[in-house]
Amino acid sequence: MATFISALVFLLAVMGGTSPAASQSSAPTEPMCYDWGESSEGAVSVVEGEVGWLSCPLFSHPSVYNYTSTQSAGHNLFWYRLPEGHDLEQPITYSSRLSKDRERLFLQPAAAADTGQYICMLRNKSSCSKIAIRLKVLRPDDVVKCALPVAVAPIEDLIPLQEGKTLDCPDLQDATKMSESAPKVQWYFVAHPVCDWYPFWDSDREQKGNSLQVHLMMEQYQGLYYCRVQYQRRNQTLNFTRSINVTAILPLSLPKEPSIMNPTHDQIFTVKTGTEVRLVCRGQLPFVLDKPWREIWWTVDGKTLDKLPDRFTQINRVVRDHFRDLTIENILVIQDFQSKDLKREFYCSVKNERGFDTRRAQLEEEVSLPTVELGCGLGVTLLLMLILFVVYHVFWLELLLLYRSWFGTDERHTDDKEFDVYISYARNSEEEQFVLLTLRRVLENELGYSVCIFDRDSLPGGTITDETLSFVARSRRLLVVVSPGYASQGSQALLELKAGIDTMALAGHLRVILVQYKPVRRKGWVRELRRARVALALVRWQGDKSRELSSRFWKRLRVELPVRRVSSRGEDEEESSKEVALMRLHSQNSTNSQTGLISNTVKDPQKVLNSAA
Ligand SMILES: *[C@@H]1O[C@H](CO)[C@@H](O)[C@H](O)[C@H]1NC(C)=O
Ligand SMILES: *[C@@H]1O[C@H](CO)[C@@H](O)[C@H](O)[C@H]1NC(C)=O
Ligand SMILES: *[C@@H]1O[C@H](CO)[C@@H](O)[C@H](O)[C@H]1NC(C)=O
Ligand SMILES: *[C@@H]1O[C@H](CO)[C@@H](O)[C@H](O)[C@H]1NC(C)=O
Ligand SMILES: *[C@@H]1O[C@H](CO)[C@@H](O)[C@H](O)[C@H]1NC(C)=O
Asked: Where are the transmembrane segments (predicted)?
């Protein structure tokens, strides 16, 4: 494919006497011209209708290509163009609009059709180099929306809040020089996402002549301001655009002296020797217009950190930027803090153009508490308490029994009573059976108590009332088997209950225990029982569950009954077993024959005689 350029090169090559074979190859320029490809600097953007230019990128590295020296070596610079969508390089037709000046190609102004790739070629008779660069001509409508393409980086400008300032378009003076009439300026404001053309929607900003006057600066007026300069030259209207990045700062009337926020006057840093210690200094460093220099630093014994061992380092961090008034934190890090460091003087200082502040950090050694040991000890104690609590709640009956068996006193040694237990119950078959077959059997045979059951132990012929009172008075406990029919009016049971309650109230040597054989509603109880219930122990029989001697029922009952040590002391055991044997004998007799033998526990011989008669 023969392009214009290859044809040109071919021509030159033939003229220069180089081998025609080389130039007739499929890409004849290649062996002769070094191709740098496309410039890495990226595309150049120009707004349609504005002035723009391309600089040959070969000269971006003057150490390789120096325009002056290449000219002296007989080099010529050629520009070619590869329009968008074409693969044919075309020579540039120079005109008043498109002109070449040294290494630049000027477009005055740029047109939409100028978009494309441009190649600049530098060559003399024996050597050749070329490089490509892309040009983008942007439509003003596409780009004006919120950001105008500006060839020059924005100028930074600061306006204090609540104050005013006049903005002039940069480079306007240059336009004035070139212009044949007074240049005109148009202002834009871009505060994303809105983009305003002048006039802006408020009265705080106003264009006066070519300048923009900000009467009253507000935070929302920060942003990019664009100005487009338009001028006349040679019957042509030319224009260019510049931008100003406006940032608000705090009013100049505010105090600008720096100050230290931390450490406060009474702040104390607790330090631990052998560890890494961090002292935080926090300073307020206002911005001073035109003199923004400011600093925050630590000194140790009057020395800055660069004159101290490597153990001392600092970390700087901007905590807050409030309209350029900075809050800066400087952390002094001391590795492996030593006790001698405690005696050093640590000062934090802040400084800006307006002033200086310094404060001493007070250090105090931490009193090391053996926290771990303390925590463990406390934990173990709590755990033990918890265990004890649980154990007590689950096994309190067992514990109570155990305690009594060790420390309880045997009431037999301190009183002169005959019976351990007097059983009072309703005389109906169910309760009677429970009393005789279960309660009596276990209490007498298995637990070794002496039991008094009126119907069994009383002698025929006696006055029931007297005998009941006497029996009850001679018992240590009155065991009342509560049932629905218990203690109906005029019954033996009521008599027993009254006797028991009276004895308890008067002499205090008797305790009444309630045994609930079947669930009974409180309402069904006789008044005496109801009244006394509050103060009395109630043990519930729970059917088959309570049959075992190790069940809760028997344990509860044993707690209420007098202490009976199941000891191995022969004497006691012998005595009690003797007693049991006697009781058994007696009980057999009393049940088998109403006129039988007199129990040896009955002490009144007169009564015995009376009953015998
Ligand atoms: C200058 O800018 C205006 C407005 O965008 C545009 O219409 C015009 O083509 C540009 N160039 C000249 C020479 O006015
Ligand atoms: C280019 O070369 C000329 C003469 O050789 C020299 O005076 C000039 O400083 C050079 N420019 C650069 C940018 O190196
Ligand atoms: C062409 O330029 C090179 C260096 O760029 C130079 O060495 C050479 O002498 C020049 N050739 C002629 C014919 O001037
Ligand atoms: C400028 O344009 C006017 C008419 O548009 C023409 O009469 C005049 O000759 C032009 N001047 C130049 C310097 O081109
Ligand atoms: C304008 O200035 C602000 C603050 O200095 C900066 O954050 C922002 O990037 C700047 N904008 C442009 C477009 O340069």
From this structure: 378-403
Active site residue: 50, 496, 560, 579, which one?
A: 496
Ligand 4: residue whose CA is nearest its atom 11: 235
Structure tokens at 300: 């140790």
Atom number in ligand 1 closest to CA 239: 1
Q: Tell me: the pLDDT tens digits for 562-598?
A: 887 654 444 444 444 444 444 444 444 444 444 333 3
Tell me the pLDDT tens digit for each residue of 199-247: 666 788 888 999 999 999 999 889 888 898 888 888 888 888 889 999 9
Is residue 528 annotated as part of the catalytic site, yes or no? no
Instruction: Supply the pTM of this predicted model.
Output: 0.43
CA distance linking residue 421 with residue 477, whole number of Å: 5
- Angle of CA points 354, 356, 361, to nearest 5°: 155
Say if residues 91 and 120 touch (Cβ distance below 8 Å).
no
Residues in the chain: 613
CB 185 within 8 A of CB 176: no
Strand partners, 245: 156, 224
For residue 139, which of 112, 108, 106 has the smallest C-alpha distance?
A: 112
Q: Higher pLDDT residue, 407 or 165?
A: 165
Strands (E), 5-111: 34-38, 44-47, 52-55, 76-83, 90-91, 98-101, 104-107
Q: Tell me how far apart the alpha carbons of residues 446 and 557 are, in angstroms, rounded to a whole number.
A: 13
510 neighbors 497 (Cβ within 8 angstroms): no
